[in-house]
Write a structure and sequence with these properties.
It is elongated, with a radius of gyration of 30 Å. Strands 2-1-3-4 form a 4-stranded mixed sheet, covered by helices on one side. It is α+β, with helices and mostly antiparallel strands. It folds into 3 domains: 11-40; 54-148, Glutaredoxin; 155-205, no CATH class. The chain is built from 7 helices and 7 strands.
Length: 206
């Protein structure tokens, strides 16, 4: 009689143990699925040193178009890229990050005009901007330039002895024309500030 009772008790405990094991395994599977599908991280530091600024979050959430960030580096540098860019991807499903092996894809590197490893290109539609530095300031700056980018017009007054834009002497502005004017202009035309007789002299616009 005691032998049968012990066997029944052992069978009962074995059944409980099996149920517990099944529950634990199922919980781990569900946790892994949720973690892969909803990859979120939480910054528990007091100064939020691992979180993106509110301005960055606002710019991303207000974007109506998908945002693609392409990171060019050697494979051993991808983790550095993920440490920053995964935070962007966590903000919105509109953000897509691609990691490109600069050594295996030299044609893409040349086509993108990449000059150094660890460079990120931010794309929105047909607009592309390179992050000037690989940190939040640089990547978000490229994002903002993509969103607000467009034609720029620079006007220089002429006719009253102003410095000339083509003048290569120390008093001229030709060095600025070579350095920054090509980046912000798409057309060149002549214009005037106004047409009244006592108005300022005409302005040349680029």
């Amino acid at each position: 009689m005691n032998t049968q009772w012990m066997k029944a008790r052992q069978t009962k405990y074995a059944a409980y143990l099996a149920v517990y094991v099944v529950i634990i395994v199922a919980a781990l599977v569900v946790a892994n699925v949720l973690a892969s599908r909803y990859n979120k991280s939480f910054d528990a530091t007091s100064n939020k040193r691992f979180s993106l600024a509110d301005q960055t979050k606002k710019v991303i959430k207000e974007s109506k178009d998908d945002i693609k960030i392409v990171y060019f580096d050697k494979p051993t540098g991808f983790q550095q890229g993920r440490d920053l860019l995964d935070r962007y991807a966590d903000i919105s499903p509109k953000v897509h990050v691609e990691y490109v092996d600069a050594y295996k894809n030299p044609q893409r590197v040349r086509a993108a005009g990449i000059k150094r490893e660890g460079t990120a290109i931010v794309e929105i539609g047909n607009k592309k901007e390179e992050a000037r530095t690989f940190d939040e300031e640089g990547v978000t700056g490229a994002l903002i330039r993509d969103i607000k980018g467009g034609e720029r017009m620079v006007c220089v007054a002429t006719g009253s002895g102003e410095h000339q834009i083509e003048d290569s002497s120390p008093k001229g502005f030709s060095q600025y024309t070579r350095n920054w004017l090509p980046r912000i202009t798409t057309r060149r035309s002549a214009s005037t500030c106004c047409r009244r007789p006592k108005c300022r002299p005409p302005a040349r616009c680029w």
